[in-house]
Amino acid sequence: VQVMESGGGLVQSGGSLRLSCAASGFIKHYLTISWFRQAPGKEREGVSCMAIHDGSTYYRDSVKGRFTISRDNAKNTVYLQMNSLKPEDTAVYFCKGRTDSTDYWGQGTQVTVAS
Q1: 3 state SS for 15-37
Q2: For position 99, what pLDDT does the model report?
Q3: pLDDT at 4 over 70
């Protein structure tokens, strides 16, 4: 069981990116799939989370209204659509899949927002 991120890159301030978190196996095997980020010199912080059983979502205040988490069950993939990006969104973004016994982290994908 593992998760793998993709979709990072360099974008201008105000631009958009869509990150993907592809899960091995059926996505329904996870309790939650979450996005975290870590900027240089800072602690990793939670960005958004989706409860797989009911689709409920969570966003940290600084991304509300700009980021949207969604899923495609057929592709076993969770997405993070990021709009109106700001330089302070620059970080390595990580996906985490949580089962009832283990957390699975991806390797991260770099998002850089140029001012």
Answers
A1: CCEEEEEEECCCHHHCCEEEEEE
A2: 93
A3: yes
Q: Residue 16 in contact with residue 81, Cβ under 8 Å?
A: yes
Name the maximum alpha-carbon separation found in the chain: 41
> For 47, what's the count of Cα atoms within 13 Å in the CB-facing half-sphere?
29
**Nearest-angstrom CA–CA distance, 82 and 59:** 12
In terms of Cα–Cα distance, which of 53, 52, 46 is closest to 67?
A: 46
CA 56 to chain centre: 15
Residue with tokens 């009911």: 54
Model confidence pLDDT, tens digit, residues 58-84? 999 999 999 999 999 999 999 999 999
Amino acid at 98: R
Other residues' Cβ atoms within 10 Å of the Cβ of residue 110: 12
CA dist., res. 56 & res. 110, Å (int): 26
Amino acid of residue 53: H
